[in-house]
Specification:
- By secondary structure, the protein is α+β, with helices and mostly antiparallel strands.
- It is 32% helix and 26% strand.
- The chain contains 19 helices and 39 strands.
- The strands form 6 sheets. The protein has a 24-stranded mixed β-sheet that branches. Strands 30-31-32-34-35-36 form a 6-stranded antiparallel β-sheet.
- The radius of gyration is 31 Å and the shape is elongated.
- The chain starts with a helix and ends with a strand.
Length: 701
């Protein structure tokens, strides 16, 4: 036999062996993967081969095993148990190897994250931990016991041999009954047993403590994702609030749920959570839903929508933010940017947007943090607790009792009620005194507020604030009407010491020192502050709807000019230099622009615990701020429906802008129907165009 022929035979045999091994590796005989029986050591290599199979090949194994009359279901159950146990165990090992802190933070939320930051281990949205004992110590300081999460293993798997179940084609390790699917790669931490109940068609995940998470019909889709969460759009306000650090393009999964309690069930439906039992809770990120001990309501359920959830018989807590008491009537928790819209459509509600809260109807909440504002809309005895302070919001005002000094509370900058029938009362605030106690003080009036959310859970509020001593003069001068050709409100504001307050919140509480090479300073805080200041100084003050089709139709697509960007960068750097020298205990950064009639405007920086500092501005910076103040008062609501004014024979944009609506409608008591057009001396569109030509350039599409 010649060498060429021998070589050909060798190559043929080699490929034959490879093909045979490949066939054997993807055997459809279920016994080739189990090999052992309960109680004996698992053959991990064979189990891993099954785990590595595609869903199509797993289903072939399942189909062939159905021909085994007596042992097929038992073998499927056994193989499922061994595979799930190995997947869960390997996942825990991997999480610990790449950094247990990331796994713990993801599951236990930002309170632990903040505690770690205070200990000086914060680094670029990640945590630097030397060992697991250090992690446990940090968790204990935040009141968290992570031993359960780290030590729990899957001890039992039942019912996976059911004829109902098959492996989803949407993923390798997702199994379901056609209506509900379980992704065994993404099981919640703390689960120690899993059961498929064939009679009820549900998956039951039981924790080591005894609480149960039940996947009802439609709770998850073929990808194993939670339907009520993953169906939320990228721009959903609820989605942003649920997971501020999450990639909006990624689905919100089952692995982020934590069950708290030893009795009862948390049942996930297609668009809701139902809680059965006494005192059991479910946690997702910073959100905690629970049924209180001795709850009298027959039903405890929360239903999810794009910008809110509606609950009944449910206690809710947003960690570090607010606690909502249970009610036997429907109560809405909303995250829309405009609480006025919520007030028109909801009876009993809490609205949260950035660092602002609004309440309506009846209910009870406990505030767990400092707030920029707290408003009540047509309230019917809505109770708000802030530490030792109890407030009762009613239609005719806020009742705060006779006491004016409290040991424990939170600062709240602007508190007042709103009623369609009555002008707003003078607002007040809760401040912290030098002796550490809290008290009530009269507050300046917020003429209007615009809020925007940023990355990493940041937010910015832009408020036009009128000094309380100027309110009476403004009301007297305006006399309840607009008169062409002069706007008395604009003129009276220009003669007052009004200010734009730009309050920025970043969830990096406790960051003590931002040295020159700090990643958090250079790669997170400064870019975010720059972005927020840019939006606040121009986009939010001039017009919050730069992308509105009507605005684009009139002015085209606009962007800040390079010169304006450079000036904003300069202002930002001056702002950062003051932030850098201070310890920011609350994560709040405030930037205040004050109008000084007859003089140049001033800019100051305010942070809790620090003195107000005035920034030195050069001529170009002064010019930019002056331009902004001059133009901001005459900006109409470009994006809204325009009214035809016969006197001018043209359409005039509806007025006022968002940052003056509270003053015009609520304090001055004007009706939209009686002030449908804004008629300044010079055409407002020309003035806006003049400003945009000076400070912006056309954007290339």
């Amino acid at each position: 036999m010649n060498k060429q022929k021998k070589r050909s035979i060798a190559i043929f045999l080699f490929f034959l062996i490879v093909i045979i091994n490949n066939i054997l590796a993807q055997s459809t005989n279920i016994n080739d993967y189990t090999k052992n029986y309960p109680g004996e050591n698992t053959n991990e290599k064979n189990i891993q081969k099954f785990i590595d199979l595609s869903s199509e090949d797993k289903n072939k194994v399942w189909e062939e095993s159905r021909t085994l009359k007596f042992s097929g279901e038992v073998e499927r159950d056994l193989l499922s148990q061994q595979a799930i146990q190995k997947i869960y165990k390997d996942r825990l090992k991997k999480d610990l190897a790449v950094g247990a802190e990331k796994m713990i933070i993801r599951t236990l939320g930002s309170i632990l994250y903040q505690e770690m930051e205070k200990e000086g281990v914060f680094e670029q949205l990640g945590i630097k931990i030397d060992n697991i004992d250090q992690l446990k110590d940090l968790a204990k300081k935040a009141g968290k016991d992570i031993d359960v999460v780290l030590a729990t293993q899957i001890e039992s798997v039942e019912g996976f041999g059911s004829k109902d179940l098959a492996w989803s084609t949407k993923g390798k390790n997702i199994i379901g009954n056609g209506k509900t699917y379980l992704n065994v790669d993404k099981l919640p931490y703390g689960v120690n047993s899993i059961k498929y109940d064939e009679s009820k068609k549900v998956f039951i995940l039981k924790t080591k403590d005894g609480g149960e998470l039940v996947l009802g019909e439609g709770a998850t889709n073929e990808n194993g994702n939670v339907n009520m969460l993953s169906s939320l759009t990228e721009k959903s306000p609820l989605r942003t609030a649920l997971a501020p650090f999450a990639d909006p393009k990624k689905p919100l999964g089952l692995e982020n749920f934590i069950i708290i309690g030893d009795k009862g069930q948390v049942v996930l439906g297609k668009d809701n959570i139902e809680i059965k039992g006494d005192g059991i809770k479910v946690k997702y990120g910073e959100f905690v839903f629970g049924r209180k001990q001795g709850e009298k309501s027959a039903t405890s359920i929360v239903k999810f929508y794009e910008d809110e959830f509606i609950m009944k018989g449910i206690e809710f807590k947003r960690e570090g933010y607010v606690r909502v008491g249970s009610t036997d009537y429907e109560f809405t928790v909303n995250f829309e940017s405009n609480p006025n819209n919520v007030a028109y459509s909801k009876k009993n509600f809490l609205n949260m947007y950035g660092e602002n809260s609004a309440v309506g109807g009846k209910g009870n909440i406990e505030v767990l943090r400092n707030l920029n504002s707290l408003r009540g809309f047509d309230c019917n005895g809505f109770r708000v607790k802030a530490g030792d302070i109890d407030l009762s919001f009613k239609e005719n005002g806020v009742y705060k009792g006779n006491k004016n000094s409290f040991k424990n509370s939170f600062t709240i900058d602007n508190i007042y009620t709103i009623s369609d029938e009555k002008p707003v009362e003078y607002p007040f605030k809760i401040v912290k005194s030098a002796d550490g106690t809290y008290k009530f003080e009269a507050a300046n009036f917020i003429a209007g507020k615009i809020t925007a959310l940023g990355k990493y859970g940041t937010s910015v509020d832009v408020s036009l604030v009128v000094d309380k001593k100027d309110l009476g003069k403004i009301k007297e001068k305006v006399q309840g009407a607009w008169f062409f050709p002069k706007s008395s409100l604009v003129e009276s504001l220009k003669d007052s010491s009004f200010s734009y307050n730009i309050d920025m919140y970043a969830p990096f509480e406790g960051t003590a020192s931002m040295n020159p090479d700090s990643k958090i300073k250079n790669e997170v805080i400064i870019p975010e502050l720059r972005d927020m200041l840019s939006k606040a100084l121009v986009s939010k003050v001039i017009n919050p709807k730069l992308n509105d089709p009507k605005f684009v139709e009139i002015f085209g697509n606009r962007q800040l000019s390079q010169e304006t960007n450079n000036l904003i960068d300069s202002l930002t750097q001056k702002f950062i230099s003051q932030v850098q020298a201070s310890r920011v205990g609350s994560g709040k950064y405030s930037f205040k622009i004050t109008n000084n009639p007859g003089y140049l405007p001033t800019i100051s920086v305010l942070m809790p615990g620090n003195k107000e500092n005035t920034m030195d501005l050069d001529n170009n910076e002064n010019s930019l701020i002056k331009d902004i103040l001059d133009i901001s008062l005459i900006i109409p609501d470009i994006g809204s429906t325009a009214y035809h004014v016969r006197l001018l024979d043209k359409d005039v944009p509806k007025w006022p802008a968002d940052h003056l609506k509270e003053l015009w409608y609520r304090y001055l008591g004007q009706k939209p129907s009686s002030t449908s057009a804004y008629l300044p001396v010079k055409d407002d569109l020309d003035l806006i165009k003049e400003f945009l030509n000076k400070r912006t350039t056309k954007k290339n599409d």
